[in-house]
Amino acid sequence: MGMPLLSEVKNDPTQAFYICRICTSQIALSDSFNYYYTPETGLTGGVFDEVVNVHVKQSAQLRKVGLHTTVDAYCLGCGNHLGWKFVKISKEDPSVEENMILLPMAKLLMWDGYQMVSAEAT
Ligand SMILES: [Zn+2]
After folding, report:
1. What pLDDT digit, counting tens, does each position of 61-100 carry?
2. Where does the Yippee domain start and stop, copy by copy (predicted)?
């Protein structure tokens, strides 16, 4: 199970996937969506285990999200801040794993196999 390539996703229009709301770069297959996560900071997002076109700066500052340590993650297409990558996990909250990505759904749109819809509605 490798990282899905953009061309593969595009070649199968019946496959549901998420895109960047701003530049429409493909971000994640709907299969990569795990669950909604709401750390105590009040921030809510979808936790994904595989994403494409999302990058993390080498010099990124560490940031606490809930009990965990994250770095900011950006869209490769437009540079927009998309969410956070978990880099250090607290054992007190086993709901996420290292290298998972937290993306607020308001930053995304979803192609549901037929049309583009709000990612938040799903
Ligand atoms: Zn973008």
Report:
1. 899 988 899 999 999 999 999 999 999 999 998 889 999 9
2. 16-112
For ligand 1, the distance from its centroid to the CA atom of residue 6, given in whole angstroms, is 14
How far is ligand 1, taken at its centre, from the CA of residue 30, in Å?
17
Domain for residue 43, yes or no?
yes
Measured in angstroms, how far is the CA atom of residue 68 from the centroid of ligand 1?
25
Q: Is residue 22 part of a domain?
A: no
Domain extent, residue 69, equals 35-113
Find the 35 Cα to ligand 1 centroid distance in Å: 22
**Cα of 18 from ligand 1 centre, angstroms:** 11
For the chain, the three-class secondary structure string (H helix, E strand, C coil) is: CCCCCHHHHHCCCCCCEEEECCCCCEEEEHHHEEEEECCCCCCCEEEECCCCCEEECCCCCEEEECCEEEEEEEECCCCCEEEEEEEECCCCCCCCCCCCEEECHHHEEEECCCCEEEHHHC
Q: What is the pTM of this model?
A: 0.85
| 91 CA → ligand 1 middle, Å | 32
Is 102 a domain residue?
Answer: yes
**Residue 54, in any domain of the structure:** yes
The CATH number assigned to the domain holding 95 equals: 2.170.150.20
